[in-house]
Amino acid sequence: MALFDLLWERFKSSRLTLLMTGIMVHGYKGVQFQNWAKTYGCSPEMYYQPTSVEEVREVLALARQQNKKVKVVGGGHSPSDIACTDGFMIHMGKMNRILQVDKEKKQVTVEAGILLADLHPQLDKHGLAMSNPSLGAVSEVTVAGVIGTGTHNTGIKHGILATQVVALTLMTADGAVLECSESSNADVFQAARVHLGCLGVILTVTLQCVPQFHLQETSFPSTLKEVLDNLDSHLKKSEYFRFLWFPHSENVRIIYQDHTSKAPSSASNWFLDYAIGFYLLEFLLWISTYLPGLVGWINRFFFWLLFNSKKESSNLSHKILTYECLFKQHVQDWAIPREKTKEALLELKAMLEAHPKVVAHFPVEVRFARGDEILLSPCFQRDSCYMNIIMYRPYGKDVPRLDYWLAYETIMKKFGGRPHWAKAHNCTRKDFETMYPAFRKFCDLREKLDPSGMFLNSYLEKVFY
């Protein structure tokens, strides 16, 4: 009997088998979840990897029966605790198929768990592409995750990634499946494209694509004064314009990305890009945790070494729009009205100059996006500038950032900012009611679809309560 008890306990500690309506759902205990940056983690009571719609439905049925919270996780790249839970965690990685390709409409329907890194090569085979994918070290993210958090790239003529969604299916807390588009469940559709994981489980997504295209990237040095004084001109010159400002200096790196018919070419150099631009940088930033005064010198040195000359390259769009996020980091990224770009960035610069003990790693990345009508999109009803700040964590070591973070948030709020949903922030419901004209409409819909709060966690409770 003792042996039986021991075996039974071991079985329960490794996985739970739920048998309902003839379908077996396996859940695992003891799984430790951490995001990519290793800044947040959790220990869900049960961890599920469903392979079908029915298996998702049965996990939700068990959650209702046991009164458990449920959170869906994708690639785990969000630099916040938006995916964390001590209840049930559903990982959608085994629901990652392409279900349909409509070449005439240039639309593709995929299961919600497909990674962008896997989707783009499949689109290549059909001569299609996403018009403005958000890639980089974050390409190992699911389609449902990137739309749900309002992920974006750059280009004032292009919206955030969620604007490319033309339809989706959503399973609500009671197990019902809603087909959502502009013509079906339109109110849910306008909310669910940036869903925060709180409306239900996204099952499938239909994306509007474009014919496959190539881009040429041209990057060159400039100054902060030049780019801000001529911002409208830069936005008109390049379809996918962005720039990088190197704090504690006037240095700027301008990046143009535009359609081309040129053959693929590369400006990469392993020694400079990785031996210097990754490994040496990480080491020097680690040293600067003991000598913070080095940060300004590091920013200027790496601009001079790696970014102070013109570079050109060309390739398929998703390969050009891919960029390296380097090593682990803390990130904030707020969207402000596009016309406030100059004022906000100059105020951030002035704050750093007035407080020499506050240090800021490079780069401050400045990108742009077209306004939209998605209820919780940071670009809701306005063209926006995203101002992304970074503090790296060399070798996983935390760096002092609180003063920088609070000053940045104060400036962003002053200029009407809205935080990126995937990033850490200190906002509450009161803030969001001011920031988002449609916030209460979203809340009413969320409460209707999930009256018991099954899909909430501590992050979302701060948003909605």
Automatic annotation (TrEMBL):
Source organism, top-level taxon: Eukaryota
Catalyses which reaction(s): L-gulono-1,4-lactone + O2 = L-ascorbate + H2O2 + H(+)
Keyword Cell cycle assigned: no
A Pfam short name: FAD_binding_4
UniProt KW keywords: Ascorbate biosynthesis, Endoplasmic reticulum, FAD, Flavoprotein, Membrane, Microsome, Oxidoreductase, Transmembrane, Transmembrane helix
Subcellular location: Microsome membrane; Endoplasmic reticulum membrane
Membrane topology, record value: Single-pass membrane protein
EC number: 1.1.3.8
Transmembrane segments: none
UniProt keyword Endoplasmic reticulum present: yes
Pathway(s) the chain acts in: Cofactor biosynthesis; L-ascorbate biosynthesis via UDP-alpha-D-glucuronate pathway; L-ascorbate from UDP-alpha-D-glucuronate: step 4/4
Cofactor requirements of the protein: FAD
Start and end residues of each FAD-binding PCMH-type domain: 40-212
Homology family: Belongs to the oxygen-dependent FAD-linked oxidoreductase family.
Alphabetized NCBIfam families for the sequence: FAD_lactone_ox
Protein function: Oxidizes L-gulono-1,4-lactone to hydrogen peroxide and L-xylo-hexulonolactone which spontaneously isomerizes to L-ascorbate.
Protein name: L-gulonolactone oxidase
Provenance organism: Apodemus speciosus (Large Japanese field mouse)
Taxonomic lineage from the root: Eukaryota, Metazoa, Chordata, Craniata, Vertebrata
